[in-house]
Amino acid sequence: MRILIALGGNALLRRGETMTAENQRANVRVAAGHIKEVAVDHEVVVAHGNGPQVGLLALQSTAYEEVGIYPLDVLGAESQAMIGYMIEQELGNVMPKDQQIVTVLTMTVVDANDPAFKHPSKPIGPVYDKETAERLAAEKGWTVAPDGKYYRRVVASPQPRNIIEQKAIRQLVDSGVMVVCAGGGGIPCVYDDDGILHGTEAVIDKDLASAELAVRVGADLLVIATDVEGVFCNWGKPNQERIEQMHAKDALNTQFAAGSMGPKVKAACNFALATGKRAVIGSLEDICGLVNGTHGTTITP
């Protein structure tokens, strides 16, 4: 079976942790161990988030005043390479020695007229308390929004329309290579009126891009791995309850938090409806159960 595993940000950095290379490496090592549980028996493509990392790079770039702040597409490319390197290396340390693993720098095409550019919504960078977030927003011209009990910078998150390297990725997977790609939803790019491709100031939702890629590489299952056991009704309340299964059309008509579970459910629905196959949302620690259908929340067509 061909499985695309979309790693949530918790696979790289847990909430409240300092964003050091050591912490990220330790979390990736744990994630690689879980991925191995299914990768030894299935074809696996790994996608991942980059919100904290690309935000940190953007913040660091403001400290060097002699050079202007690097655009988000360039920072996205930097974070893809950094995270892909860690995932590729740690997977190589646990997978059979003859398993080839490569990281593909991935560009994702978006529409230059996507309304998301006028309504920033994608969290990036570290979390802040309200006072600090408001101060940084005033100083740097950021848009900030709540993220749980904290605040984070938010940027435009347009819909993925195409993935430039999709054919190359599929060829690699067809030949038995394990591929790490579409990091952070891919590097956001647009075509101008002359048909020239160039980067744009945005961060694409990792789950929506992963669903798009899963369709295009012929995946049999999309696994959206996060830090909770699945999708819950009455989340955060004493009567919260995990939803074991949802039909895609019903799920699309149900409201979920826009900044957290909403995009994951939408991505799972997109894949299920496009392919007639199932997607599952749940904890990476339960990866075998997610694949076998005994854990998480399954979205069916």
From TrEMBL:
Reaction(s) the record says it catalyses: hydrogencarbonate + NH4(+) + ATP = carbamoyl phosphate + ADP + H2O + H(+)
A Pfam family this chain is assigned to: AA_kinase
Keyword terms of this UniProt record: Kinase, Transferase
Gene Ontology CC: cytosol
Any one GO MF annotation of this record: carbamate kinase activity
PANTHER family membership: CARBAMATE KINASE, CARBAMATE KINASE-RELATED
Name of the protein in its database record: Carbamate kinase
Organism of origin: Cutibacterium modestum
Gene name linked to the record: arcC
